[in-house]
Specification:
With 110 residues, this protein is an all-alpha fold. The chain has helices spanning 3-21, 30-35, 37-60, 69-81, 88-109.
Amino acid sequence: MDERVEKWLYDVRIAIEEIDGYFRNIEKDFLQFRENQMLKRAIERNLEIIGEAVNRILSKDPEIPINNARKIVNLRNFVIHSYDTLSDENIWAIIINNLPELKKDIDKLI
């Protein structure tokens, strides 16, 4: 594996671990998430990093087996360019439903 691709895979993993880490001392509760502006912004930033890293990975290896890779990049673009229409519900659904699966994909590749 190209060492740049491996570095970007680790960037994704670290960003996911950071998001998971935000919930070590607080309950993983949507209502608390929705009310915590700093938490939301930190998670959004990590989603941007994940999307950018996946974009770079795809540019180097378009056939890499990351489920929904294109959607991950599209999410990054949406967070950056359409920040004013982000839905807390959608971000929460990604945290709960999609990040655990992405972490599995990344761990297999690493």
